[in-house]
Amino acid sequence: MSDVSLMVNGKRVSGNVEDRTLLVHFLRENLGLTGTHVGCDTSQCGACVVQVDGRAVKSCTMLVAQASGSTIVTIEGLANGAELHPVQAAFKEHHGLQCGFCTPGMIMTATDMIARHPEGLDEATVRAELDGNICRCTGYHNIVKAILAASQAMAKGAKGRAKQAA
Ligand code: FES
Ligand code: FES
To answer: What is the CATH number of domain 2-77?
Structure first.
């Protein structure tokens, strides 16, 4: 057994878990954060993506003991109260989901992708970076559109804030 302690969506959580406990199972079963999905358990589908210290990680590939001491953000931690995160808002506006099963992982992957490309994204980059996220419904087209729109909206917001601060 291992003692673990993590920041999850801004709250300190701790537990005593079996050494083999995966991060995704800890989030879903111990913390009840069921927005993080399990689609394959074999590191293929990306439905389980969360952010670990700011980077997108497939939480079925990580033991919670490995994540101990880290800061985790799940889909439940992305919105600011009732206000959707710009990536969530863009998925809604551009119909980037159908059944929604892949959506939390897509959105967590997209937020990391946008943060790593503050200069902006192009379609080829978005498609290449979505390589680890599988969607069975949408054909990806609207997901790509949503990520490109969110990237533009977030770049505009950052420019506006920089202007105000100057
Ligand atoms: S459940 Fe983790 S990649 Fe599919
Ligand atoms: S919206 Fe159904 S799997 Fe992507």
So the answer is: 3.10.20.30
Crossing angle of helices 141-165 and 103-116, in 10° steps, is 40
pLDDT digits (tens, 9 = 90+) for 72-103: 999 999 999 999 999 999 999 999 999 999 99
In a 13 Å sphere around the CA of 2, the CA atoms on its Cβ side amount to 17
Give the count of beta carbons closer than 10 Å to the beta carbon of residue 162.
9
Atom nearest to 41 CA in ligand 1: 1
The CATH homologous superfamily to which domain 86-161 belongs is: [2Fe-2S]-binding domain (1.10.150.120)
Would you kindly state where each structural domain of the chain is located, as residue ranges?
2-77, 86-161
Q: pTM higher than 0.90 for the full model?
A: yes
Residues 158 and 138: their CA atoms lie apart, in Å, by: 30
Residue 69 CB contacts under 8 Å (≥ 6 apart), including other chains: 5, 6
Burial of 111 (0-12, 13-18, 19+ CB in 10 A): buried
Amino acid (one-letter) located at 29 = E
| Cα 163 to averaged position of ligand 2 atoms, centre (Å) | 38
98 Cα nearest atom in ligand 2 = 1
